[in-house]
């Protein structure tokens, strides 16, 4: 019988949907280029990049080579490569794209992937010629031109060969074990990579179905049907309906009606086959280089999904738009549905289906949801209409007994997608991709455009071929088999084949099954031929399976069973037993396998073998023996074979006889092998007597015994006998001497030699004779000393000797060997020195002392060591005898070496010209100062080497070569077209040689067309070329090094082009992110068009997001969609003009202007860093620990809603309550809000410590909804913290803890917009809030038919900028048809909603339509919205009141909750009658209102929100309607997911604050300066909140802006005393913390507010006492109001100078007994961030800080401890900003900004993380570090009238500093000419160096810039060696002399300065090029540092210049 099952597989060609996606892939495929796209994705699928970043994959995601695609336990994904290859990844699986090479022109290349879990690969063009390689953990699978399933788990791999030319499977560790299949339909299993292929078996339908279901989801269980029940055409409608509904539930996508019916029959047949057939599943081995994974079977049954019978199912993406025509064999059903399909028509002639096919074939949109058909049908119909067309059913296979196989289960197009990294259950399917949509390609050149077009054409050609191939049905094969064959029959036909192949597909025939090796397929006769005889007794039937597969992946399996007729057969051998009869002496080596082993001594009669034979027919069997030697044996009737004669191994060692078994008719012959085993015999030994000399040496071979075993066995030897211990014998019989023989003692020995073969031992006795020999004398010697100095006296005894001779012969001595002539020996053996030693010649001697008795000589080696007598020798070598005058300083001039030194050698140099420096340790001489041939042509210097005892010198002369400057340059091109862009390189940077200084370049250009880079010499185009104006341009490039000038002239030719010089202009410098659609962006300023044709314009690059559009006629660029600064800070477009076949382009850069719209912000960043790069006192690093994937910073708490300020601190921020030290923030994790609380380590006391840092207070990060879910921080993990005391609107803390994560329940925010009568959404609000959803509602009242709408305001307008804050929008706004008689309420908002539904955090948009009011507008708006999102919907105003076919409607589980829901029973209503990409929801009963639901994955790619529409606002009013609301809200909650991950940084710094903004409409800065006139310049005063050290038992405040790792606990506080500085409340406990509390803000406006300063009070006493610590300043910051609404912050300065010292008190003494000092100065510059494009973007708002800090510190040193050296360093200082805020946060009284956070590197900045760098002279090492400190502005006082205080909360006018009019100012100096003093410290040549610098007779010159608040200082200084006292004892000296230091520059760029007044100022050293060092001495290299005026300090340090000491101020003028 024959059974047929058809399996419809994915085709091997790419589907149509591939091509629109592949338009983005162009060019040559490389390692990091895109090679394909994700066509379909279900739930979480990720891409693991080469940088180990993990990105979520959505539909259309670009596939990159070497990336890894991974799925979770529910995930599946289908990836399409550019050559047409498709691979589908199952759940819990991954595929790594190791290598992909593809040449579109030849369609050749290669593909290698690594797989774990389950995957299916459908080969594309690459695999036609070269097999695709799939590597697993166990085996490597190769598949050429076909389809394969690979399932790998651990060391097991299964490869299923579905279709193709060849599949190979190679175990990874057994390369010789490759198994090759050329037959389809088999499964190969590898269980062990070391072993061969474990098994190969036929692939069953069940196995194939299981794999397909794993890739798509298991089909629902169907009702079991009896195998005996046959399929009849008259099946009941109910059964037919159940089958159709079941199939619809299983289908993941819509497919055409014809395919659906084929799939149903296919499923039935496949399942029946799986019931009747059984097959073993076997494992295969497949290789994997690195990965192994577990495959998890996705066997969870899907929720029951049912849909309208009218819903046709879409085609799979693998098969593209294939529409298979039904055939009679396929048994096509007419899948008609209620009111949607025409009845009674054959599926193949359905006109609507044909239309769908036609659309698919031309690449139209085939995407639709699981339940919605792609074919629109007529309304109407009844339940009776739903019965199937029985005429269309096939009369072929029994459909009752064969289960259905869902065709969609065999492809992945139903796979859904998690389209966003933030919404794991937001589903998207590949059918959403609009294949008709044209995707723009960003191409930069015409060549790339052409290459891209060719690739697209190639791929399109494949698509067209595929569409054509797939439009024809699968081939059908009918098989007719013979009834039976005779069991011994062969070469006969057993079956004939009838083939129908309408599509002329390529067909492959394979025969499998148990007896497949006995038959073959004959293609000439289309028959199956039997080639081997059969055995009836073994198998009464012939069972084979014919597998037919075509090139489209269709498979037909035919099972054949043929009876085998019996005939009489010969007997058969059942068993044979071989007996082994072996004697004890038998040779075991003669025993062999596969026969009887009989010793040659075996007795006659012994049984040597038994044989058992059976006859299949039961006949009696007779035995006889035959063959050579058979007469030696006999056989009994029972088959027993016995020995009949004696055996002899030597004459015959083997017998092979035959046993003949006969049943009287037939007989069989069996060979019996009998081996004769040799018996073992004793060995023999041969050896003669021998003699040996008495002085023979040991180990000498004396004789050799020869042992022999007859059986050839190895023998062993041993000795015995008296004296045998003097001899030994080895395994070869060699006898050697082991002892000493003495003829005088014994003259012979009797030895017995034994030889053994292991069983027998044989002795042999011999005699050994000893012969007499004359022996050498013996001698001993001793060297007198271990070493003899080289000046040892001649004649000194070196060694003595003693000798004796065995024969008493006399002994004589002699010496020999190298150096023996230096010594002599006498007759007694005494060795003496004969001539002088020389250590430099030889350090030791080894001579021979020879003692001779006249015949024999004995030799002893004497080792004599020579000791050195020190003699220093110096040798120097010039690197070259002459050097060019242009060599750089530091060049090596001479190298040195010494010998003979008695100690450490040090080097010094005498250099009268002061040109060279020497390394005192190595003697290397380098150039210290520049050479100049014109000044001197040679230089002589002397190098001296000294070892402490001796010294040697050598003088050298270096010749100086004259070098002149020259340059070499060339034009980049001899000619340039007139259309080239400005900035194009004309001359590349020239090569300069022979320069004597810095080379600078200039250009002479009469035409003013070019510009030159003065540093590099590169020439670029400055102004456009114009051929019509001038055809060539000549210019001269000149180079100068300060002394020499050289030039080179160039002529550039200009080439004419007809279309050139496209010039554009921006409408404004930046484009605001709030700009409306259509806003003007840029326009064309000019275009040179000589083509004679009108130019057209297009955007050819940079507009992939579709944000801009261009007027093709004018080139004007406008916005096409909303822009957002957080998405892109700028866009770079390429505008192309085309005319007359020519094109020219121009780049348009559009900066996006940010709008600050955060009411509150939480900022977190890491203080950790790695990968440090240091250059001098500058260092950068990568932020965060090594291996971290976190961003540089995280911005949280985004809102501009005044009701949602997340800065919550309890009812009373100052109260002593534990609940008052936290803030609440909304953490953004992939745009999903997570509510968290930051608990800060702040004192909750109401006393002095209130709101200040308290390390004992619990700090944590907690889940707002569950306080037990938190990250706790131990006391040791908390470093710093605080909070502003005024508003509680600025909080900060620093932590010391590794990265930590917290899983937090996510929150959902819902925006409700409604306009009906009051209360219509009240129940919705209640239901949402009850489910934990945060609701924001906005309603505009509408009163019936009266239009009461505002003329221009929409209820949504208030939320335009914050729509992304909401996950759900319920839009129930109504309007009459007239809205002002002109427009609906939704006008202009469609684009905003479209952008919102694509936001990664959006969940669902509910659009509620009211039948009464504005329905037409609502329909129009909603229809357009859905159309723009890739779907469609059709509205109708009637619906069948009786329910019609809707009464039997079943809905998917997703919509189960509303399938029986009645909404509002007042008609008439209206409904949607058709939609694409959605599910129509028709309520049952008498309702008139319909709904539709569009899932995000069913719409266009990128859509993340589901869309729900309903037809009546009553849905939220009636109390009985909760079901629908609950269903929708629960669906949103389920889609959102349960948990989000909060990730904290390592060493995290957190601050939370209210930004001090400057955006339009929320401009805090404008409010701050509103009361001042333009040009007003103010000075704010700030303080730095100090950081407390709590470690090591010593508590103190760290100095500000210095990394804590630069500080030691023993250093102390260096005078940083805060506790005595509270003039308003002295004597407080914890006064230092009270100071911090006051500094952090005070709401009080009395005299004690904030930190007091003496700057504005000459009476600094009592309550007005200065509260700034001694030796420290306030942080003074200048700002200016420049116009009516803006201000311009400027310079700032802060300083601290603290000394602690004492003197010995002696009159005139200047020696300090002990001292400790700190110098610290910060010079800052606040400015707009938009101007600093190195760190920020042009669209960044507000202000940033660019400052630098300099410091030095001397550890305490005194008479008892002078070992401590200086620490000194520098640090950048920046404020922490964010995308939505600048430096400042929160407001104080007077609207001034209150707080900021300062750190070396702003984490928002685009630069690398910057670090502090400091040098520790104690350890001689550079170190790096960082810090973070808060700064708070203060309320200050001003007595402008000289007597009364005026509180200045906004700052003091700068006139109070700079003029004498302010009587309240402490001092009002109008000029400044003061002294200059300090220390010069640097690190050079391995030593720390210090000098004292002080002003010369000319005081420093200081120039003040009152306009820009800058200062420049020039100070001629004397450099003197520091005094030799305890303070400088560890420092080396420097050369003394003079130099001039420069501070500050004119534009505040290279050297910053800050000028507050002529007594308060500071500046950095200006030393960009080192030119300021104009003295002849004073140090090497450039300098860095700062100066600050002493009166910058609020109160001078009392120990620095004290009146009672001996160190007064040296110049009374300052």
Walk me through what this model shows.
With 2014 residues, the protein is mostly beta strands. It contains 15 helices and 130 strands. It has an 18-stranded mixed sheet that branches. It has an 8-stranded antiparallel barrel with strand order 105-108-109-110-112-113-115-119. Helix 3 packs across helix 5 (257-276).
SSE topology:
Elements: E1 2-8, H1 17-22, E2 34-42, E3 45-48, E4 54-56, E5 62-64, E6 68-71, E7 76-81, E8 86-89, E9 94-103, E10 108-122, H2 126-129, E11 132-135, E12 138-144, E13 147-153, E14 156-163, E15 166-171, E16 179-181, E17 186-190, E18 199-202, H3 205-216, H4 237-250, E19 254-255, H5 257-276, E20 286-287, H6 351-361, E21 416-418, E22 427-429, H7 446-470, E23 476-481, E24 484-486, E25 492-500, E26 507-512, E27 519-522, E28 527-530, E29 541-550, E30 554-565, E31 572-578, E32 596-599, E33 607-614, E34 622-626, E35 633-635, E36 640-643, E37 654-662, E38 667-677, E39 684-686, E40 690-693, E41 701-704, E42 706-708, E43 716-720, E44 727-729, E45 734-737, E46 748-756, E47 761-771, E48 778-783, E49 787-789, E50 797-804, E51 812-816, E52 823-825, E53 831-833, E54 844-852, E55 857-867, E56 873-878, E57 882-884, E58 892-899, E59 906-910, E60 916-918, E61 925-927, E62 938-946, E63 951-961, E64 966-968, E65 975-977, E66 985-987, E67 991-993, E68 1000-1005, E69 1010-1012, E70 1019-1021, E71 1032-1040, E72 1045-1055, E73 1059-1066, ...
Parallel strand pairs: 10-11, 24-30, 32-38, 40-47, 49-55, 57-63, 65-72, 74-80, 92-93, 92-94, 94-95, 95-100
Antiparallel strand pairs: 1-30, 2-5, 2-7, 3-4, 3-6, 6-9, 7-8, 8-10, 9-10, 10-13, 11-12, 12-15, 12-20, 13-14, 14-17, 15-16, 17-18, 21-22, 23-25, 25-28, 26-29, 27-28, 29-30, 31-33, 33-36, 34-37, 35-36, 37-38, 39-42, 41-45, 43-46, 44-45, 46-47, 48-50, 50-53, 51-54, 52-53, 54-55, 56-58, 58-61, ...
Helix pairs in contact: 3-5, 8-12, 10-11
């Amino acid at each position: 019988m024959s059974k047929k099952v058809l399996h419809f597989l994915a085709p091997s060609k790419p589907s149509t949907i591939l091509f629109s996606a592949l338009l983005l892939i162009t060019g040559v495929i490389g390692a990091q280029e895109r090679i394909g796209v994700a066509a379909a994705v279900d739930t979480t699928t990720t891409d693991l990049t080469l940088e180990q970043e993990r990105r979520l994959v959505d539909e259309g995601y670009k596939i990159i080579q070497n990336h890894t695609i991974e799925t979770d336990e529910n995930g599946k994904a289908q990836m399409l490569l550019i050559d047409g290859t498709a691979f589908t990844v199952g759940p819990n699986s991954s595929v790594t794209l190791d290598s992909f090479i593809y040449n579109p022109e030849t369609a050749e290349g290669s593909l290698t992937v690594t797989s774990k879990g389950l995957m299916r690969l459908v080969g594309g063009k690459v695999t036609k010629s070269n097999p695709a390689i799939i590597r697993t953990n166990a085996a490597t699978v190769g598949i050429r031109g076909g389809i394969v399933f690979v399932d790998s788990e651990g060391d097991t791999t299964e490869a299923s060969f579905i279709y193709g030319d060849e599949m190979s499977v190679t175990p990874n560790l057994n390369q010789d074990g490759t198994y090759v299949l050329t037959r389809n339909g088999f499964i190969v299993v590898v269980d062990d990579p070391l072993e061969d292929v474990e098994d190969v078996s036929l692939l069953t339908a069940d196995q194939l179905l299981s794999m397909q279901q794993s890739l798509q989801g298991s089909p629902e269980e169907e009702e079991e049907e009896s195998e005996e029940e046959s399929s009849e055409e008259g099946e009941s409608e109910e059964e037919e309906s159940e089958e159709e509904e079941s199939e619809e539930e299983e289908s993941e996508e819509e497919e055409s009606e014809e395919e659906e019916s084929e799939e149903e029959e296919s499923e039935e047949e496949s399942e029946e086959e799986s019931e009747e057939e059984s097959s073993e599943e076997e494992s295969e081995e497949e290789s994997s280089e690195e990965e192994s994974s577990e495959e998890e079977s996705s066997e969870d049954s899907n929720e029951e999904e049912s849909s309208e019978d009218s819903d046709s199912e879409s085609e799979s993406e693998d098969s593209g738009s294939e529409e298979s025509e039904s055939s009679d064999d396929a048994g096509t059903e007419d899948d008609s549905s209620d009111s949607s399909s025409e009845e009674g028509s054959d599926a193949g002639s359905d006109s609507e289906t044909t239309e769908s096919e036609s659309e698919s074939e031309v690449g139209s949109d085939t995407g639709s949801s699981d339940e919605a058909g792609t074919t629109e049908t007529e309304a109407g119909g009844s339940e009776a209409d739903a019965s199937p067309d029985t005429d269309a059913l096939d009369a072929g296979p029994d459909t009752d007994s064969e289960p259905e196989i869902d065709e969609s289960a065999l492809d992945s197009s139903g796979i859904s997608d998690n389209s966003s990294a933030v919404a794991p259950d937001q589903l998207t399917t590949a059918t959403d991709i609009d294949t008709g949509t044209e995707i723009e390609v960003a191409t930069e050149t015409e060549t790339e455009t052409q290459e891209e077009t060719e690739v697209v054409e190639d791929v399109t050609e494949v698509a067209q071929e595929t569409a054509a191939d797939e439009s024809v049905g699968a081939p059908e094969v009918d098989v007719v088999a013979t009834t039976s064959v005779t069991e011994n029959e062969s070469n006969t036909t057993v079956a004939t084949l009838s083939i129908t192949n309408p599509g002329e597909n390529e067909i492959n025939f394979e025969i499998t099954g148990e007896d497949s090796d006995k038959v073959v397929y004959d293609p000439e006769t289309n028959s199956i031929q039997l080639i081997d005889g059969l055995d009836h007794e073994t198998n009464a039937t012939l069972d084979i399976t014919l597998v037919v597969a075509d090139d489209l992946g269709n498979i037909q399996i035919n099972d054949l069973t043929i009876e085998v007729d019996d005939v009489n057969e010969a007997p058969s051998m059942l068993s044979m037993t071989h007996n082994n009869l072996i004697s004890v002496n038998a040779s075991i080596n003669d025993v062999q396998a596969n026969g009887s082993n009989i010793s040659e001594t075996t007795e006659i009669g012994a049984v040597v073998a038994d044989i058992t034979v059976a006859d299949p027919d039961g006949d009696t069997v007779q035995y006889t023996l035959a063959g050579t030697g058979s007469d030696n044996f006999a056989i009994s009737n029972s088959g027993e074979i016995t020995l009949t004669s004696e055996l002899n191994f030597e004459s015959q060692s083997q017998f092979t006889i035959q046993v003949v078994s006969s049943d009287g008719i037939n007989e069989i012959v069996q060979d019996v092998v009998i081996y004769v085993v040799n018996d073992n015999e004793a060995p023999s030994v041969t050896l003669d007597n021998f003699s040996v000399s008495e002085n023979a040496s040991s180990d000498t071979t004396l004789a050799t015994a020869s042992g022999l075993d007859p059986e050839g066995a190895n023998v062993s030897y041993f000795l015995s006998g008296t004296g045998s211990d003097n001899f030994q014998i080895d395994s070869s019989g060699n006898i050697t001497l082991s002892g000493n023989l003495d003829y005088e003692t014994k003259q012979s020995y009797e030895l017995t030699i034994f030889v053994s073969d292991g069983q027998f031992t044989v002795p042999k006795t011999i005699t050994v004779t000893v012969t007499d020999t004359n022996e050498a004398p013996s001698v001993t010697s001793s060297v007198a000393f271990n070493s003899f100095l080289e000046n040892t006296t001649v004649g000194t005894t070196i060694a003595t000797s003693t000798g004796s001779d065995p024969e008493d012969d006399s002994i004589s001595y002699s010496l020999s060997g190298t150096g023996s002539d230096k010594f002599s020996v006498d007759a007694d053996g005494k060795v003496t020195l004969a001539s002088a030693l020389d250590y430099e010649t030889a350090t030791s001697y080894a001579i021979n002392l020879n003692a001779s008795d006249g015949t024999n000589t004995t030799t002893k080696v004497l080792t004599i060591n020579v000791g050195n007598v020190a003699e220093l020798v110096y040798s120097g070598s010039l690197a070259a005898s002459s050097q060019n005058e242009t060599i750089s300083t530091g060049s090596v001039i001479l190298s040195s070496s010494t010998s003979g030194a008695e100690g450490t050698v040090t080097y010094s140099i005498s250099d009268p010209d002061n040109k060279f420096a020497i390394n005192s340790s190595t003697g290397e001489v380098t150039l210290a100062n520049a050479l100049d041939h014109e000044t001197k042509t040679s230089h002589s210097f002397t190098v001296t080497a000294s070892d402490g005892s001796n010294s040697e010198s050598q003088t050298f002369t270096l010749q100086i070569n004259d070098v002149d400057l020259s340059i070499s340059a060339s034009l980049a091109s001899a000619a340039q077209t007139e259309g080239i862009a400005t900035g194009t390189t004309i001359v590349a940077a020239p090569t300069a040689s022979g320069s004597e200084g810095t080379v600078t370049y200039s250009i002479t250009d009469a035409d003013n067309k070019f510009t030159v880079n003065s540093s590099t010499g590169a020439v670029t185009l400055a102004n456009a070329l114009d051929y019509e104006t001038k055809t060539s341009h000549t210019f001269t490039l000149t180079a100068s090094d300060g002394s020499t000038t050289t030039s080179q002239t160039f002529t550039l030719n200009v080439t004419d082009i007809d279309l050139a010089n496209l010039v554009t202009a921006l409408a404004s410098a930046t484009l605001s992110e709030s700009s409306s659609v259509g806003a003007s962006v840029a326009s064309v300023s000019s275009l040179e068009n000589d083509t004679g044709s009108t130019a057209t314009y297009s955007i050819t690059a940079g507009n992939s997001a579709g944000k801009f559009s261009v007027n093709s006629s004018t080139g004007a660029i406008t916005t096409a969609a909303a822009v957002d600064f957080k998405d892109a800070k700028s866009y770079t477009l390429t505008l192309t003009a085309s005319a007359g076949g020519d094109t020219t382009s121009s780049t348009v850069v559009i900066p996006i202007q940010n709008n600050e719209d955060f009411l509150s912000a939480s900022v977190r960043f890491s203080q950790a860093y790695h990968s440090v790069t240091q250059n001098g006192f500058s260092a950068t690093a990568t932020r965060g620990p090594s291996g971290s994937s976190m961003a540089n910073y995280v911005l949280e708490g985004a809102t501009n809603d005044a009701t949602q300020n997340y800065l919550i601190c309890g009812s009373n921020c100052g109260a002593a309550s534990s609940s008052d030290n936290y803030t609440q923030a909304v953490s953004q994790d992939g745009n999903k809000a997570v509510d968290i609380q930051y608990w800060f380590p702040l004192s909750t006391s109401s006393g002095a410590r209130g709101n200040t840092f308290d390390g004992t207070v619990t700090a944590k990060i907690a889940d707002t909804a569950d306080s037990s879910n938190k990250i706790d921080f131990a006391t040791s993990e908390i470093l710093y913290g605080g909070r502003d005391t005024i508003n509680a609107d600025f909080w900060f803390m620093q932590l010391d803890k590794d990265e930590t994560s917290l899983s937090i329940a996510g929150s959902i925010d819902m925006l409700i917009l409604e306009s009906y009568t009051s209360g219509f959404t009240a129940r919705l609000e209640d239901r949402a809030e009850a489910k934990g959803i945060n609701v924001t509602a906005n309603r505009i009242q509408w009163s019936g038919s009266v239009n009461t709408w505002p003329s221009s305001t929409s209820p949504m307008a208030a939320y335009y900028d914050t729509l992304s804050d909401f996950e759900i929008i319920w839009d129930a706004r109504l309007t009459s048809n007239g809205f002002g008689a002109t427009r609906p309420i939704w006008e202009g908002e469609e684009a905003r909603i479209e952008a919102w539904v694509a936001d990664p955090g959006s969940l669902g948009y509910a659009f509620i339509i009211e039948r009464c009011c504005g329905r037409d507008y609502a329909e129009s708006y909603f229809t357009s919205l859905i159309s723009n999102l890739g779907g469609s919907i059709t509205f109708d105003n009637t619906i069948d009141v009786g329910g019609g076919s809707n009464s039997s409607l079943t809905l998917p589980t997703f919509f189960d909750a509303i399938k029986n829901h009645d909404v509002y029973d007042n008609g008439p209503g209206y409904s949607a009658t058709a939609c694409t990409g959605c599910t129509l929801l028709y309520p049952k009963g008498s309702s008139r209102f319909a709904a539709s639901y569009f899932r995000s994955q069913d719409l266009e790619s990128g859509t993340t929100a589901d869309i729900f529409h309903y037809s009546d606002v009553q849905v939220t009013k009636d109390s009985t309607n909760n079901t629908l609301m609950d269903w929708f809200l629960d669906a949103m909650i389920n889609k959102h997911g349960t948990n989000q991950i909060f990730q904290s940084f390592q060493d995290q710094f957190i601050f939370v604050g209210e930004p001090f903004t400057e955006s339009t409409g929320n401009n805090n800065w404008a409010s701050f300066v509103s009361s001042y006139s333009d040009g007003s310049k103010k000075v704010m005063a700030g303080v730095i909140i100090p950081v407390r050290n709590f470690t090591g038992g010593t508590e103190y405040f760290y100095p500000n802006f210095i990394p804590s790792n630069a500080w030691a606990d023993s250093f102390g506080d260096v005078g940083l005393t805060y506790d005595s500085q509270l003039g308003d409340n002295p004597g407080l406990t914890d006064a230092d913390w009270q100071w911090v509390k006051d500094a952090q803000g005070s709401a009080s406006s009395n005299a004690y507010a904030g930190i007091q300063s003496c700057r504005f009070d000459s009476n600094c006493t009592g309550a007005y006492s200065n509260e700034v610590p001694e030796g420290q300043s306030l942080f003074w910051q200048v700002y200016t109001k420049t116009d009516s609404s803006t201000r311009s912050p400027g310079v700032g300065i802060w300083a601290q100078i603290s000394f602690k010292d004492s003197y010995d008190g002696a009159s005139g003494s200047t020696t300090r007994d002990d001292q400790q000092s700190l110098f610290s100065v910060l010079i800052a510059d606040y400015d707009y961030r938009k101007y600093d494009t190195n760190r920020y973007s042009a669209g960044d708002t507000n202000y940033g800080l660019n400052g630098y800090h300099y410091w030095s510190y001397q550890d305490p040193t005194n008479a008892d401890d002078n070992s401590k050296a200086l620490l000194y360093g520098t640090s950048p200082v920046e404020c922490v900003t964010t995308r939505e805020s600048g430096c400042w946060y929160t407001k104080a009284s007077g609207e001034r900004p209150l707080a900021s956070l300062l750190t070396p590197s702003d984490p928002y900045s685009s630069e690398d993380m910057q670090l502090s760098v400091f040098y520790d002279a104690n350890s001689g090492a550079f170190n790096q570090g960082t810090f973070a400190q808060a700064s708070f502005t203060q309320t200050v006082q001003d007595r402008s009238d000289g007597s009364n205080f005026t509180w200045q909360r906004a700052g003091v006018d700068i006139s109070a500093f700079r003029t004498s009019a302010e009587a309240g100012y402490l001092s009002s100096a109008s000029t400044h000419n003061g002294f200059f003093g300090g220390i010069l410290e640097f690190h050079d040549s391995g030593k720390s160096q210090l000098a004292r610098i002080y002003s010369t007779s000319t005081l420093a010159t200081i120039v003040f810039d009152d306009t820009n608040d800058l200062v420049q200082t020039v100070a001629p200084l004397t450099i003197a060696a520091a005094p030799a006292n305890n303070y400088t004892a560890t420092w080396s000296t420097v050369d003394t002399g003079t130099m001039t230091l420069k501070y500050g520059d004119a534009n505040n760029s290279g050297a910053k300065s800050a000028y507050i007044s002529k007594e308060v100022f500071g500046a950095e050293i200006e030393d960009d090029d080192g030119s300021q060092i104009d003295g002849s001495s004073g140090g090497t290299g450039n300098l860095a540092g700062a100066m600050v005026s002493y009166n910058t300090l609020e109160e001078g340090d009392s120990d620095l210049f004290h009146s009672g000491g001996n160190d007064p101020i040296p110049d009374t003028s300052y």
